[in-house]
């Protein structure tokens, strides 16, 4: 299902990020139509339907237009260095719901195939809400990041006690988040990915423990 919304990647950038989204539209067909509409100027490399069907819209060698204004681990404008996967789900505006097992299995298989082709670090397998926390909340707290990590896609840390005096903002920055945004906004984005049991933007003890564990894996 090729999309015209693509262009050349910058010659000097590696493909070292994988950004996962939800479509946030009422149906997968509507989402694919928009991602293929030249007037919309948005696209992704892949779309994964709720029944597990995978559509390729843009070749991995080309830049898809999925992340927009984005930042992670000091890099910006991430479309040039990333592969984007849109996962069909109506999202928070149209009746957000859990992702079916068949869909998650297809996402996992697709991610593993991509990782076999590109040396993408585990910490660079992120949510749209991680790289644009002031604008996005997808794929959201129902997405099974822990299950993906158990199968070799991304990270899911074990909790650990934060170092004495550790500041949440410093831990978030060490993981990769931009730190010029309000702390509750950043904490909410972190919780959507790595602590979905409670998405409230509050640095409670459990959130701090998960933050510290992930920052340790990031080398902080």
TrEMBL record:
Residues 3-140 form the N-acetylmuramoyl-L-alanine amidase domain. The keyword Cell wall biogenesis/degradation applies. GO terms for biological process: cell wall organization; peptidoglycan catabolic process; peptidoglycan turnover. CDD domains: PGRP (cd06583). One of its GO terms (cellular component) is outer membrane. GO terms for molecular function: N-acetylmuramoyl-L-alanine amidase activity. Belongs to the N-acetylmuramoyl-L-alanine amidase 2 family. It holds the Pfam family Amidase_2. It catalyses: Hydrolyzes the link between N-acetylmuramoyl residues and L-amino acid residues in certain cell-wall glycopeptides. InterPro entries: Amidase/PGRP_sf, Amidase_domain, NAMLAA_amidase_2, PGBD-like_sf, PGBDSf. Its EC number is 3.5.1.28. This is N-acetylmuramoyl-L-alanine amidase.
């Amino acid at each position: 299902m090729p999309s015209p919304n693509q262009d050349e990647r910058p010659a000097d950038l590696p493909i070292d990020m994988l950004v996962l989204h939800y479509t946030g539209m009422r149906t997968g067909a509507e989402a694919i139509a928009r991602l293929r509409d030249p007037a919309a100027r948005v696209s992704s490399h892949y779309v994964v339907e709720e029944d597990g069907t995978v559509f390729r819209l843009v070749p991995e060698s080309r830049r898809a237009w999925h992340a927009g204004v984005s930042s992670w681990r000091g890099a910006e404008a991430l479309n040039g260095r990333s592969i984007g996967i849109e996962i069909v789900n109506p999202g928070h505006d149209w009746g957000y719901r859990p992702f079916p097992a068949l869909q998650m299995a297809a996402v996992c298989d697709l991610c593993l195939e991509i990782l076999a082709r590109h040396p993408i670090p585990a910490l660079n397998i992120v949510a749209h809400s991680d790289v644009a926390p002031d604008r996005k909340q997808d794929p959201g707290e129902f997405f099974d990041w822990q299950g993906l990590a158990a199968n070799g896609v991304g990270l899911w840390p074990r909790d650990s006690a934060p170092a004495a005096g550790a500041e949440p903002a410093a831990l978030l920055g060490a993981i990769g988040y931009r730190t010029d945004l309000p702390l509750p906004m950043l904490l909410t984005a972190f919780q959507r990915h790595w602590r979905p049991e409670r998405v409230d933007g509050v640095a409670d003890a459990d959130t701090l423990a998960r933050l510290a564990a992930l920052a340790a894996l990031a080398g902080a």
